[in-house]
Amino acid sequence: MVNLNITRVPTKDEQRNMQIIGQAQPKDKFTEELHKRKAQAGKKGLPFCDAAAKDDWTEQHRTESTRLIRKYGKGYLTKEAIIEYKQPKMDWEKYSNLDNFEVFQVKSMKDDDLSKRNNMPIARTLTVYKYQGYANTYTMMNSEQEAIMGARKKHDALWGRTEKSTNLPVPKVWAAGKDKAPNRK
């Protein structure tokens, strides 16, 4: 097969809808930052309302694009307008601030895997949040460490032990409901 390298200059109408391949678009930059912020909030155990962030970004993007279209008067974003384009500024903390969420539901769920690994019944707490002004719900679960420590405290309170013992590893016999190791013959 012969490669002829035939090229032609695109018309003005074709250029209007063209995107330069390999150049990061404003939405790509925003999406990358959105995923990074959502992951950070998740590591802190906080919900993150990505729907509100997307809506706010889209609104600011439309406003900036409309301003540039009016300024250059061509009916579309020209190369000069794209150079002048300013990425919308986002207040990322707003989307994970607990003041903007209402607690929709709190429930406890037994974690069979953690219970099996730690030889004691362990329950995880699920908190369902709802962002104000949106119907989306976000479910957050307490960490494994928090669940284990909570189970140890309950166990120690049941057996009348002090809080200092919660930092010690849990013997396997506690899971069987015995205070002392079983007699072996």
Instruction: Outline the biggest β-sheet.
Output: 3 strands, antiparallel
Low-confidence stretches: 177-185
Strand order of the largest sheet: 1-2-3
Tell me the number of structural domains.
2
Radius of gyration from CA coordinates: 28 Å
* Relative strand content: 5-15%
What is the element string, with H for helices and E for strands? HHHHEHEEHH
Count of individual helical segments: 7
Report the count of strand segments: 3
Oligomer type: single chain
Structural class computed from helices and strand pairing? alpha+beta
- Estimate percent helicity: 40-55%
Distance between the termini: 84 Å
Which overall shape is indicated by the principal axes computed on the Cα atoms?
elongated
What's the rounded overall pLDDT mean? 82
Descriptive account of the structure:
The structure is a single chain. This protein has 185 residues and is of the alpha+beta class. The chain folds into two domains: 25-96; 98-178, no CATH class. It contains seven helices and three strands, in the order ααααβαββαα. It has helices spanning 12-16, 26-43, 50-72, 79-84, 112-118, 144-159, 172-175, and strands at residues 101-110, 123-131, 137-141. The protein has a three-stranded antiparallel β-sheet with strand order 1-2-3, covered by helices on one side.
